[in-house]
Sequence to fold (258 residues):
Amino acid sequence: MFGVVPKALWEKQIPADTRNRIRLGLTCLLVRAGGRHIMIETGIGDKFDAKRTDIYGVEHSTSLPAELAKLGLKAEDIDIVINTHLHFDHCGWNVRREGAKLVPTFSRARYLIQRGEWEHALHPTERDRGSYVADCFSPAEARTEFLDGDREVIPGIRVEVVPGHNRHLQCVWIESEGQQAFFISDLTPTHAHLPYAWMMSFDLYPLETLANKKRLLPQLARSGALVIFPHDPVMPCVKLIESDGRIAAVPAAISSSG
Fold:
């Protein structure tokens, strides 16, 4: 998760267990806008076998459908699903089991993904094939809308392609009443990854990750935008501050009004 950063440094931020694993969150963001429910990411899902569950230490203390139910929502209430990319930990609940079949979990939703990411996910390289599990996304192809670059999804929500983690990663901007939020995805997976050089070895294009972090993080700090990390188990939502060329995070809350 920290690439070339020595463990002696990164372990001060997120301690490892005896198997060298660190605790990570699986943040999915529900947005209510224009009378619609938009789901950004769908987490890791429930289609891992026992071996893979053990390797990754997956804990199913809750699930995305269960969390939606707490808000009085069912899967069919979701109108749009935005996947920043198709690694298994970001699209796992795109699809669910229905008997012996795999079907779209969100039966009424449009699934939005960059066309290039979909094509790569179906034909990954040797380096990143372990990050893609076709059963997590391909059965939802009939409900998938392919994007080619930046796009306004609905008024107030737009996606921006931010290469680095992979070629077609898309982050999500949300604007409402003069305020902004930014789902930063795996460009910066946790607050511990805010230092520019602290990047994942999963990144296929690390120099592009570096360039985009140096472009976006100061911009987000200046604007006062909420920043939502996909994998931070402690501070999933923050505001950024910049001091002496360094970026730091301050915990923030997302209001649930509307």
